[in-house]
Input
Amino acid sequence: MSRAAGNARLKSARVAAGYAAQQDLADAIVKAAPALGLRGVSAGVRQVRRWESASPPWPHPDVGRVLSHLLGQSLEDLGFTPPWGTAEQRPEATRRRVVAGTIAAVGLATVPAQAVAATQPANVGADFAAVTRSHRHLYWSVSPATLHPAVMEHARLGCALLPETANGCRRTLAVALAESYLLAGRIEFFDLRQPEIAGETWVRALQAAGEADDALLGAAILAHTAFIPGWEGDREKASERISAARAYARRGSASAGMWAWLDAVEAECETRCGHTRTALHLIGHAEGILTAGSEHASPVWMDWFDATRLKAFKGNTQLKAGHLPQARTTLLEALDELPDGSDKQRTVIYGDLAAVEVAARHPEEACVYAARALDQLTVTWYATGMERVREVRRGLVPWQHEPCVRDLDDRLYGWGATVNALRR
Output
């Protein structure tokens, strides 16, 4: 189908169903979702406009289900191309697979299945995994805008190769494909602040993890999806996804580090939802788990968490709880203990230290830490870190005529910083 004029299939189906305007369809999706047993489904005119563009993104599973219900056609018939390819592109023996045990918020998804006979050599899985491993290492230093397209193209290659592999090679490739999509989603959520797109990517990651039957990867992916409602203040949906992640972790003999990280993720969601007492209890539990240890080692791909990162979680929660002296001490300890290569985390800690000083009504000290965060951002961009700095600047409004705040503004809104932020 030619896409020169956009997704004509969806537009025609929308008009034929009686939704004259894009906003009408968006409103209908939100209204119809509860009748299908789906909670928290949102849609807007901007999203519908993207669907009717020349390159429509694959809808989030819950939204896609409602869209198909309203218009009476499958998503592929409505002009969408799934990430695993169209029916014509898939081998004759391709089957639809439901990732068993996932929560309703993830929805039903499909992945390319094994062809009648493998056409790729046995080493293709290991070769694909080697590139995935390299991307994981590059994440900590390469610009997200540069790395993300490479990771996504690598994942597309994995989707194309998966139906052509078998046995151990197939599982190796599926594991690496799940990790690639997990990394892509992390970049989209934390580095580029595109939560809606990250949610779609993590669904694909879960599909691949299900194909590999890797419960620990499933746990990590589901826990990451909890950040999306958690950061929006939807405590119920975040809790549901964390519960699902814990169920997967039990199946996979999770390490002490994995269990502690799940506590930390839940703690951050609780903090964002205003329940700091619960969050501090969870962090205390995580500290106990790390101290006790376990017989199981953490997966090699879980390189985003350790005892120092847990301190960073704790310092942020103490800050939000108003425990300023404790937060300052915890964050300074975390800063001192950060290993080399943790520049993104360092930016976040600087931002939180600046926020502590704002809350303590020490504007000059706050500006010093905010400036250090900006220095780090010029080396390694991190949207989450920049959000921290902007929150600090909003907190500095009572002192905005002070020289230290004006100097910070010169840094924050200078030509280079402004252009760089817009490019990101």
Observations:
- The two ends are 32 Å apart (CA to CA).
